[in-house]
Amino acid sequence: HFADAEKMLRQALQRERTTLGPEDAITLSTMYHLSTALVQLDRLTESEKLLRELLVAERRALGPENPLTLSTLNSLASNLDQQGRFAEAQQTYRELLDIQRRVMGPEHPDTLWTMRSLGVSLESSGNKPEAESMYRATLAVMRRVLGEDHPMTVTCAEDLAILLRERGHLAESETMLRDDLAIARHAFGPESPKTLLIMDNLGWTLRLEERYAEAERLLRETLAVDEKLQGPDNPKTLDASDNLAAVLRLEGHCEEAEKLYRRSFEVQKRDYGLGNPAALEAARGFGVALSCAHHYPEADQLFRSAIDAASKTSEHAGLAETWYGFARAAAIAGHREEALNHLQQAVEQKYEAAPEMDTDGDLRSLRGDPRFKALLAEARQHIAPLH
């Protein structure tokens, strides 16, 4: 009902500006709530414009160090992050952090959360070494000041564990996630959303360590609780289902994996449309599982529809990833020429996961082909430089 909320907030804001003035506390509060509604409607540029206007008014009326002003500055940084304008977001977070350290102190919870948010932005922009340093510094203070079982500490520990997994430090990631899971179960309960999210991430790490039986047991437990508490169509439930399906496929249980992926894909497509990033991701998993289950003609048709939908969006990464998934499905089915052609399309779309190409078991049959080696070399040129 965010569209209705936007309409009501705009009407209220117009009245308040006229009767109370543009810098009245009620007017400023309405501006903030309207900016939040616009974010929920995915109208980020409109929200950004309003936040910048609000920030000017609050700095003038309340002062640059007022908690409400700082909250708006934080919202602006988050907005820029969501737009992918990471350099601007990080500059804004650093500005906020400087004020918080001076006014609130370096160990205040708000200061620590901004440090964590800056780490997330750094990670999103590809600056993983600095993100790791930020997470480690933040986590050390959180553990000392807030305690290991504080929700902020648990979240930051999970952030670091996931980043370590992405950087290939699987053993350390697993250790951290197991410790975090024990804390979350004790502090929040075995069925809390935070506990379930950590379980899901631990299962993903175990999958990358090729400990499939352990991953399957954990992910089945996670999915059962998610279905009971959130329902089968909840996005978190679907994520858990997809993670389990991925492990099942790697174990060779392709028919069960296909069923799980099929349901997830149908829900995502129904709720968001095929061009949505979540629906495209579900389509890729489903298509590869179809090929694994010897249903390649259906997979071929699915990928062609997904590519058509992805090509009509501005998400170039989604299009490249879908071509890459099509290549995997073709390679699994033994269609070598098609697989290489699809892989060429992925690379032309600036597909950046060269390390994945080099180790992907689904592409094993292509590795001896000189064309694959050439595509791998080209894909490596697309990788963003490390900071």
Protein model, in words:
- By secondary structure, this protein is mainly alpha-helical.
- Helices cover 78% and strands 0% of the residues.
- It has helices spanning 2-19, 25-40, 44-61, 67-82, 86-103, 109-124, 128-145, 151-166, 170-188, 193-208, 212-230, 235-250, 254-272, 277-292, 296-310, 316-332, 336-348, 354-359, 370-380.
- Helix 1 packs antiparallel against helix 2 and helix 8 (151-166) runs antiparallel to helix 9.
- The model has no long low-confidence stretch (mean pLDDT 94).
Helical percentage = over 70%
Radius of gyration: 23 Å
Q: What's the mean pLDDT score?
A: 94
Sheet with most strands? none
Distance between the termini: 42 Å
Give the percentage of residues in beta strands.
under 5%
The total count of helices amounts to 19
Number of β-strand runs: 0
Structural class: mainly alpha
Order of helices and strands: HHHHHHHHHHHHHHHHHHH
Shape: globular
Report low-confidence residues grouped into runs of 5 or more: none
Question: Can I get a quick summary?
Answer:
The chain has 387 residues and is mainly α. It is 78% helix and 0% strand.
Task: Give me some keywords for this one.
about 375 residues, 19 helices, about 0% strand, mainly alpha, globular, about 80% helix
Task: List the topology elements.
Elements: H1 2-19, H2 25-40, H3 44-61, H4 67-82, H5 86-103, H6 109-124, H7 128-145, H8 151-166, H9 170-188, H10 193-208, H11 212-230, H12 235-250, H13 254-272, H14 277-292, H15 296-310, H16 316-332, H17 336-348, H18 354-359, H19 370-380
Helix pairs in contact: 1-2, 2-3, 3-4, 4-5, 5-6, 6-7, 6-8, 7-8, 8-9, 8-10, 9-10, 10-11, 10-12, 11-12, 12-13, 12-14, 13-14, 14-15, 14-16, 15-16, 16-17, 17-19
